[in-house]
Design goal:
It catalyses: (R)-5-diphosphomevalonate + ATP = isopentenyl diphosphate + ADP + phosphate + CO2. The chain is built from seven helices and 13 strands. With about 300 residues, the protein is an alpha+beta fold. The protein has a single domain, classed as Ribosomal Protein S5, domain 2 (2-Layer Sandwich). The strands form four sheets. The chain has a five-stranded mixed β-sheet with strand order 1-6-11-7-8, covered by helices on one side. Strands 2-5-12-13 form a four-stranded antiparallel β-sheet. A two-stranded antiparallel ribbon has the order 3-4. Helix 1 runs parallel beside helix 2. The radius of gyration is 20 Å and the shape is globular. The structure holds adenosine-5'-triphosphate and the ligand C[C@@](O)(CCOP(=O)(O)OP(=O)(O)O)CC(=O)O. Ligand DP6 binds next to helix 2 and helix 4.
């Protein structure tokens, strides 16, 4: 007779976030530590989001993951780092109804299956890695009954993709770059929740759903190696802008908020052009949109 088996599953949903003061450049590639603080706004989960189901069962013989219905490899360092960090924080789980009891030490031997869906284009510049890794880490933490709060979980999601640390919170979120070499103080904090500025409407105009030619990871590595503008931006420009942006958000000052967001986005694209070889993320449609916004009365 077959041995009695079981499956424990958790499903989570996490929205993507859009940076208004951008993260571009790492000081540590493995731990994913940035060269500057960044601030983002988390979108409404009803729109752009990732849904991830994680499952554990004694009948699984290896860790496996499916992204948008296709199996992907979990052998990459980023997935391995997240899985290792969460497993190290796993606690005992008891589900009396289903007769499941998992001791803390059992988590090392048990394997996981992960199925994740993005309801928006993947790897196209809409921060799928942010929603994806935040959702993975959050769902695993719930599955394994980890006791860490969202800021502590953000430091793990950060090791999957830098921008992911900011998707663990709603509203406006700051990723504090931190100073420690081990990355322990590089984490996200919520500045204000989603109710603080609920008349703010964000319109996402998708100008292309194709995969970007240069991934953020590769692009920012090249910028760190070759762009002098990036050094100036990280040291001189962003620290001042972060303070001004925090003030604008606190006071719901749309004029300052829009001016700072546009200036920061333009400087990010300028750093891309200052990179060798240059990186082009904007296309003709994006340029026409910027022209249109500048010529219309946006309160900027
Ligand atoms: N739902 C998900 N779960 C786990 N990993 C994901 C998920 N979605 C995307 N990823 C990972 O993120 C990678 C895409 O990241 P990348 O930074 O290139 O694009 P992006 O995040 O969509 O765009 P950008 O960073 O410019 O906003 C994918 O190749 C995959 O490895
Ligand atoms: C332009 C950005 O969206 C870049 C995001 O880069 P990623 O977080 O995707 O990069 P990795 O840390 O290498 O995974 C700006 C931002 O979100 O702050």
């Amino acid at each position: 007779m077959a041995e009695k088996t079981w499956v424990r599953m958790v499903t989570a949903q996490t929205p993507t976030n859009i940076a208004v003061i951008k993260y571009w450049g790492k000081r540590d590639e493995t731990l994913i530590l940035p060269v500057n603080d960044s601030i983002s706004v988390t979108l409404d989960p009803a729109h752009l989001c990732t849904t991830t189901t994680v499952a554990v069962s004694p009948s699984f013989d290896q860790d496996r993951m499916w992204l948008n219905g296709k199996e992907i490899s979990l052998s990459g360092g980023r997935y391995q780092n997240c899985l290792r960090e969460i497993r190290a924080r796993a606690c005992e789980v008891e589900d009396k109804e289903k007769g499941i009891k998992i001791a803390k030490k059992d988590w090392e031997k048990l394997h996981l299956h992960v199925a994740s869906y993005n309801n928006f284009p993947t790897a196209a510049g809409l921060a799928s890695s942010a929603a994806g890794f935040a959702c993975l880490v959050f769902a695993l933490a719930k599955l394994m009954n980890a006791k860490e709060d969202n800021s502590e979980l953000s430091a793990i999601a950060r090791q999957g993709s830098g921008s992911a640390c900011r998707s663990l919170f709603g509203g406006f979120v700051k990723w504090i770059m931190g100073k420690a070499e081990d990355g322990s103080d590089s984490l996200a904090v919520q500045l204000v929740d989603e109710k603080h500025w609920d008349e703010l409407v964000i319109i996402i105009a998708v100008v292309s759903s194709r995969q970007k030619e240069t991934s953020s990871t590769t692009g920012m590595r090249d910028s760190v190696e070759t762009s002098l503008l990036l050094q100036h931006r990280a040291k001189e420009v962003v620290p001042k802008r972060i303070k001004q942006m925090e003030e604008a958000i606190k006071n719901r000052d749309f004029g300052s908020f829009a001016q700072l967001s546009c200036a920061d986005s333009n400087q990010f694209h300028a750093v891309c052009l200052d990179t060798c070889p240059p990186i082009f993320y904007m296309n003709g449609t994006s340029h026409r949109q910027v022209k249109f916004l500048v010529s219309s009365d946006m309160g900027i």
